[in-house]
Design goal:
Layout: H1 5-23, H2 27-54, E1 61-65, H3 90-102, E2 107-111, H4 121-126, E3 132-135
Parallel strand pairs: 1-2, 2-3
Length: about 140
C-alpha cells in the first residue's frame, strides 16, 4: 500500500494543523491520542498481514447505512423513498463490527437516514474502542 507524495503531504498538514494541537493541549488528550494510535496501528498491521497472507485486498474502512429513518424531509435524500423506516438490526451491526475488526478494519462511516436515530447507537459503538466512527448526520 503506497500513499502518493501529495496525499502524504496533505495528511501530514492536517495532522499538524488540526490533530496535533488538540493532542498537545492537555495530558488527557495526549493519553487518549496515544492509546487510540496504538489500537489503530495494531488493527492496521493485522489488516496488512491478512492481505499479504490471503493475497486479497481487505478494506480498512466501511460505510454502513444504519437506518432510513430521519427527522428531516430533504428533497434530495434517498431516505424519503421509503414508506416506513428500515433499521439495520443491532445483532447484524454488532456482527459486522466484530467481523470487520477481526480483519483489521478500523474506520467506519455511519450514515442513514439519520444515524443518531439508531436505537442505542452510542452504547453499541462504545464496545468498539479500537475503531474510528464518523457519523454523517444532519446535526438536529
Amino acid at each position: 500500500m503506497h500513499i502518493s507524495s501529495d496525499r502524504f503531504k496533505y495528511n501530514l498538514r492536517i495532522f499538524r494543523k488540526a490533530f496535533l494541537p488538540w493532542a498537545l493541549s492537555s495530558p488527557q488528550h495526549l493519553w487518549m491520542a496515544w492509546n487510540f494510535y496504538r489500537k489503530v496501528r495494531k488493527k492496521y498491521k493485522l489488516n496488512v498481514r491478512l492481505q499479504h497472507k490471503l493475497d486479497y485486498p481487505i478494506p480498512h474502512s466501511f460505510v454502513l447505512s444504519l437506518t432510513t429513518d430521519c427527522n428531516l424531509a430533504c428533497d434530495h435524500c434517498y431516505a424519503r423513498a421509503y414508506n416506513e423506516p428500515k433499521v439495520l438490526p443491532k445483532k447484524v451491526l454488532e456482527g459486522i463490527l466484530e467481523q470487520a475488526g477481526a480483519l483489521g478494519c478500523f474506520f467506519f462511516v455511519l450514515t442513514g437516514g439519520e444515524p443518531m436515530l439508531y436505537p442505542g447507537l452510542l452504547d453499541t459503538l462504545s464496545n468498539h474502542r479500537d475503531c474510528l466512527f464518523i457519523l454523517i448526520t444532519n446535526g438536529f
